[in-house]
Amino acid sequence: MAVKLETRSISKSFDGVKIIEDISIHLDEGELVCLLGVSGGGKTTLFNIIAGLSRPDAGQVLIDGADTTGVPGQVSYMLQKDLLLPFRKVADNVALPLVLGGTDPRAAREQAIALFPEFGLTGTEDRYPAQLSGGMRQRAALLRTYLFGKSVALLDEPFSALDTITKSSIHRWYLDVMEKIKLSTLFITHDIDEAILLSDRIYILSGHPGRITDEITIPVPKPRPHDFTLTPEFLSYKRQIITSMHLD
Question: Assign residue 170 a region: left if phi > 0, alpha if psi is -120 to 50, beta otherwise?
Answer without folding.
Answer: alpha
